[in-house]
Amino acid sequence: MSVPSPLLAEARDAATKKNFEAAEAKYRQIILSENSTEEQSVTKKLQEQESAIVELGKIFEDNHEAAKLNSLISESRAILGNFAKSKTAKIVKTLIEDFDTIPDSLDLQIQATRESIDWAVESKLSFLRQSLQLKLADLLYKKTSFQEAIRIITDLLREYKKLDDKSSLVEVQLLESKIYHSLRNIPKSRAALTSARTSANSIYCPTLLQAELDCQSGILNAEDKDYKTAFSYFYESFEGFNSQDDEKAIVVLKYMLLTKIMLNLIDDVNNILNHKNVLKYKSKDIDAMKSISTAYSNRSLKEFESSLLTYSTELKSDPIIKNHFNALYDNLLEQNLLKIIESYSCVELSHISKTIGLNLQQVEGKLSQMILDKVFYGVLDQGNGWLIIYDEPRRDAAYDASLDLVKNLSSVVELLYEKASSLN
């Protein structure tokens, strides 16, 4: 390992002592310095410039300075042409990914990625351009600009299929599945995931990418309400993320708990939370899931609503958990309403509202939906503020038999008419 120049050593020392202004000045001095004419010195100078760019980017990332990071990406292009293509791609991708941990920097990251794509096209760096387009599609997915992301992915799929680049195909097809799922186009999402798994089977699939595939499989199975299969996929995904100490492990752990709650297996929730691999993930996110499981186990709408209020950020920030908990809340509300009205043939809506602890408008809306869905038979008398409940109507067997008789007679008459026509 080569010894760093005094200037690079000073820059690193300043960064270690959190004297970031001095560190930035020294790193910029290294980046902007001209290369030597001697071959060995040129190689060393390029190595130092690479280190300076990456380390300065890391400082901006740690200090959440998105604007400075964006400027660094623009400024560094002046010297990136001196590096090998693979090294250039690595530096640019590293700088773009530095935005990932900076809060509220998504728009600036998208702008920097677009500019880097244009530069890669001008510089004829096809591999870098493709990698950045995949990153841009992922960023647009996070920004919910799904249609533009799909257009980019369609072009990338065509290119990667021509190149027969299976490893890149897996990533693109997985992202395609996620986007279509967000668009609620489940058949296309499932088809894209199947293609991604087929491509992954023919190559070595990295642990984290396999964990992503398993997670997406679990999400799609949960959409079909096949929570047992979904749990098995989430478990495999959690094992993959956990083995790599990836931050997504806690998200998948929440999905595992979600499937058990949806199956009303509250004991399993407690068993999972007491597992040695899970203990280190104890946090407010996990407390939120535990609170919901307790409320659902107690069939308490009040506890459920209280949990949603207390852990609003943890439970509503993830659209997948939010969607399933909306269904869970509806199911719990139906059960509570049916329990209240089961002993009545006519009951005041105000009494139902008071008993269940919801306002009159919410109660009316849900009861009308239940009547339309034939959960029970009844009618809302809004003039008097009553709910009138009917017994479930019995289907008259004689009526069905009469319909069959008329249908058969009709067939006989048609056959006789055909015979008569042929005789004439």
Quick structural gist:
With 424 residues, this protein is mainly alpha-helical. 75% of the residues lie in helices and 3% in strands. The protein contains 21 helices and three strands.
Main sheet summary: 3 strands, antiparallel
The percent range for helix content is: over 70%
Side-by-side strand order of the widest sheet? 1-3-2
Uncertain stretches of 5 or more adjacent residues:
none
Tell me what portion of residues adopts beta-strand conformation.
Answer: under 5%
List the helices and strands in order. HHHHHHHHHHHHHHHHHHEHHEEH
| Structural class assignment | mainly alpha
Mean pLDDT: 88
Number of strands: 3
CATH class of the largest domain: Mainly Alpha
Please characterize this protein's 3D structure.
This protein is elongated. 75% of the residues lie in helices and 3% in strands. The chain folds into three domains: 143 residues, Alpha Horseshoe (Serine Threonine Protein Phosphatase 5, Tetratricopeptide repeat), CATH 1.25.40; 137 residues, Serine Threonine Protein Phosphatase 5, Tetratricopeptide repeat; 81 residues, Orthogonal Bundle (Arc Repressor Mutant, subunit A), CATH 1.10.10. It has 424 residues and is mainly α.
Question: What are its keywords?
Answer:
single chain; mainly alpha; Serine Threonine Protein Phosphatase 5, Tetratricopeptide repeat; Arc Repressor Mutant, subunit A; 21 helices; 3 strands; 75% helix
